[in-house]
Design a protein that fits this description.
Elements (H helix, E strand, L loop, with lengths): L14 E4 L9 H7 L6 E8 L2 H4 L3 H11 L3 E3 L4 E3 L2 H5 L2 H13 L7 E6 L1 H13 L5 E6 L2 H5 L6 E6 L2 E8 L4 E5 L8 H18 L1 H9 L1 H5 L3 H21 L16 H10 L6 H18 L5 H13 L22 H10 L5 E6 L2 E5 L4 H13 L9
Parallel strand pairs: 1-9, 2-3, 2-4, 2-5, 5-6, 6-9
Antiparallel strand pairs: 7-8, 10-11
Helix pairs in contact: 5-6, 8-9, 8-11, 8-13, 12-13, 12-15, 13-14, 13-16
């Protein structure tokens, strides 16, 4: 006897852009919490430890908001967790999320809120997804990278075995709320992180979006607020559209087109003990793959030059000395990132390279000598060693 049935799963993925999310107790956040129907609904909120210094009084603001809210209440005071990769590298932080949910006696009709950068969202998202097989999660991304890319997805993960995102889950959040007020205090390097991922998705998916970024290069290079917000909104839209329409939202296959440049980026982060930020690492990884594609005759040289010049105008790094590091046998260490990328996805190696702006091609093998020649070529460019402004 064999049973073979089809299980259809329908999910609703919602991303909102707003301002002053804690400014009104009958606004967007309250309406989302009220959707559970049981009032007041129980909630806990986890806050990135980098936020209070930039937003004095933030914890009091959040606490006061819940004190005055009629539809939801905090079961415990806000919990501060480390942001950045240090939190994702520390399994004890996952246990802190579980312990908080357990102490608060939350159930599957309760809410966990995550307020912070992409790493904090990953950490809390993983803890919430595995507690009671899934506590409802509301993400509140506070970085440009999270608002335009990582925070609007359906993945949660922490690092293990010194490998990025080795332990994780897929879970569609109850909602994502991008409060653009949180972008105001970001240092320039972090603010540009979201622009890196926006350029990535434009290169892979949307030539018109690439042209728009190129036309706005001066405003974006000077981090003008209106230009950045418009780019992040379009980036989020394209990332969400890919999740919904690619036919592989939970990445059961071996291809991940929107990870263009990420095989080298993830390895660079690991080699630097995560001192290289994700945005900078992706910029370098994209530059490597752009030059490699040009050397292999896949991408026209003039198109590659246009992209690299745009990256320079946006003050993205395109090279890092760790690209040239070699092991005791003289083999380039960065190339280990290809095998780790294959292992992470399963099946055969599949990376996306560019044929033209807005047009990617999946390849399943890499010429190691040409890849290292591409890295050498990048290192010789005059802007390669210039850090972002």
């Amino acid at each position: 006897m064999a049973l073979d049935v089809s299980i259809q799963i329908s999910s609703r993925h919602r991303v909102f852009f707003t301002r002053a999310v804690f400014g009104s107790t009958d606004g967007l956040l309250a309406r989302l919490l009220a959707e559970e129907g049981r009032q007041p609904v129980q909630a806990v909120i986890f806050v990135d430890d980098g936020l209070p210094a930039h937003y004095p009084g933030l914890i009091d603001t959040v606490t006061d908001w819940f004190d005055q809210c009629e539809v939801a209440c905090l079961a415990l005071p806000p919990v501060i967790l480390p942001g950045g990769e240090s939190g994702k590298n520390d399994w004890r932080q996952v246990e802190r999320v579980w312990e908080t949910i357990h102490e608060a006696k939350l159930c599957r009709h309760s809410f966990a809120l995550a307020l912070g950068g992409g790493a904090l969202l990953d950490l809390v998202g993983f803890g919430a997804a595995t507690a009671h097989r899934g506590i409802r999660l509301i993400r509140l991304p506070t970085t440009s990278l999270a608002q335009g890319d990582g925070g609007v997805g359906v993945k949660n993960a922490v690092n293990y075995f010194h490998k990025k995102n080795w332990v994780g889950t897929f879970q569609v959040p109850h909602a994502v709320i991008n409060d653009t007020d949180f972008l105001k205090s970001l240092p320039p390097r972090e603010l540009r992180g979201g622009l890196v991922e926006a350029l990535k998705v434009a290169l892979i998916r949307d030539e018109a979006f690439y042209r728009r970024i190129a036309e706005q290069r001066q405003a974006l290079g000077h981090l003008q607020e209106r230009a950045i917000h418009a780019v992040l909104e379009r980036s989020a839209e394209l990332h969400v559209a890919h999740i919904a329409s690619s036919g592989d939202p939970f990445e059961a296959g071996s291809a991940r087109p929107l990870d263009f440049g990420h095989w080298a980026a993830h390895k660079l982060e690991q080699l630097s003990d995560f001192e290289i930020g994700h945005g900078d690492a992706v910029a370098v990884g994209m530059a490597v793959d752009i030059v490699y594609a040009a050397r292999m005759g896949m991408l026209p040289r003039d198109v590659a030059a246009h992209i690299l010049n745009l990256m320079a105008d946006l003050h993205f790094p395109i090279f890092h000395p760790l690209l040239a590091e070699r092991d005791s046998q003289g083999r380039p260490v960065i190339l280990d990132g290809l095998e780790e990328f294959r292992e992470h996805l399963g099946g055969e190696l599949t990376i996306t390279l560019l044929e033209a702006v807005g047009q990617g091609r999946e390849v399943h093998e890499v010429d190691a000598e040409e890849m290292m020649a591409a890295i050498d070529e990048l290192g010789e460019r005059p802007e390669s060693n210039a850090p972002p402004l």
